[in-house]
Specification:
The structure is a homodimer. With about 160 residues, chain A is of the alpha+beta class. Chain A has 2 domains: about 1-80, Orthogonal Bundle (Arc Repressor Mutant, subunit A), CATH 1.10.10.10; about 85-160, Ferric-uptake regulator, C-terminal dimerisarion domain (Dna Ligase, domain 1), CATH 3.30.1490.190. Chain A is about 45% helix and about 20% strand. Chain A has 6 helices and 6 strands. Chain A has helices spanning about 1-10, 15-30, 35-45, 50-65, 105-120, 135-145, and strands at about 35, 65-70, 75-80, 90-95, 100, 120-130. In chain A, the strands form 2 sheets. A 3-stranded antiparallel β-sheet of chain A has the order 1-3-2. Chain A is flat, with a radius of gyration of 20 Å. Residues about 150-160 of chain A have low confidence and may be disordered. Chains A and B meet through strand 2, strand 4, helix 5, strand 6 and helix 6 of A and strand 2, helix 5, strand 6 and helix 6 of B. Strand 6 of chain A pairs antiparallel with strand 6 of chain B. The structure holds a DNA duplex (25 and 25 nucleotides).
DNA sequence: TTTAGTGCAAAACCTTTGCAGGTTG
DNA sequence: CAACCTGCAAAGGTTTTGCACTAAA
């Protein structure tokens, strides 16, 4: 939050209470929220606030590299706190959008090897895996009991769905 | 394409020329396209086609598990051909959205180890890395020559931007 | 007093849907 | 004939913008 104010000052922007309400609410709630949800939360603190301020503040936070914008399967923008210091990777459920964070030292090392090979700069400190989370998997099994974990493409093709 | 017609028939749907135009155009163009771009391409083949058919066909392709829908930084839906057989991983540029595909056997193995640990089912056969691609990196260096490749968080913090 | 921040409402944007008419089996 | 496909235009939902006004430096 202090970092946010600092970066705004450097850009010649003024402190502003509504903006602070939005940013503070966002940081307090933790990661992974949509603009709409944030709007509802901010309303609780400051019922006077308008939608535009939400979007404008989120854009500022984005420009200050303090939040990251992502789009999930419903097409709505979702925002999350940028977290460079603690490189957790993430598994994202294709069904429900749930995010499971994890760490893995081997993955961590390979990441840099790959980046060097490709000649790229790693930005977000993350690797992302996609699939179906345990909870959705349970539902899935009801309709399709043949589904298996740990599929390896060499031994078995990707799960048929529906 | 034959697979598509087959899966539609199984669902009791009839062949339809406009739909075929859309699907064929999509497959021909290769991966990673937005609905808008596809619309423009289909127009070249069949100027008579309407937007609704594009969206409706994309939805069908999605339901047939032949395309995957993703959302990138502009919030527009983007579609790509599902490719289960040849598991290439991808690096996605945070600046320009360019996708660099790559393969890495070690990454491949670890992926399954991680999935087993988490108890999840791996869906898309992909790992994703994010960062800045070589081309954008060149631009970046003009403004900020201090930027370095192969950053390791233990020795050096993430690149400051802007 | 000049510059930036705000809420409201309207606009812009992408995607979906209703409907009337056309096509397929 | 029944069921599906299509284009058009209208509706739906999310995000941005214009404007008049307020608040901070």
């Amino acid at each position: 939050m202090a970092v946010f104010r600092d970066r705004l000052r450097k850009r010649g922007l003024k402190p502003a209470s509504q903006r602070d309400d939005v940013a503070l609410t966002f940081f307090k709630l933790g990661r992974h929220i949509s603009a709409e949800e944030l709007y509802a939360e901010v309303k609780k603190v400051n019922p006077h606030a308008g939608q535009a301020t939400i979007y404008r503040t989120l854009r500022l936070l984005k420009e200050c590299e303090l939040v990251h914008e992502r789009y999930f399967s419903n097409g709505k923008g979702r925002y999350e706190i940028v977290n460079d210091k603690d490189p957790r990777h993430r598994f994202i459920c294709d069904r429900c959008g749930r995010i499971i964070e994890f760490q893995n030292a081997r993955l961590e090392r390979i990441r840099f090897a790959v980046a060097r090979e490709l000649g790229v700069l790693l930005g977000r400190q993350k690797i992302e895996l996609y699939g179906i989370c345990p909870r959705c998997l349970k539902d899935e099994r009801r309709h399709n009991p043949a589904i298996r974990l740990f599929q390896n493409p060499q031994t078995r093709r990707c799960a048929p769905a529906s």
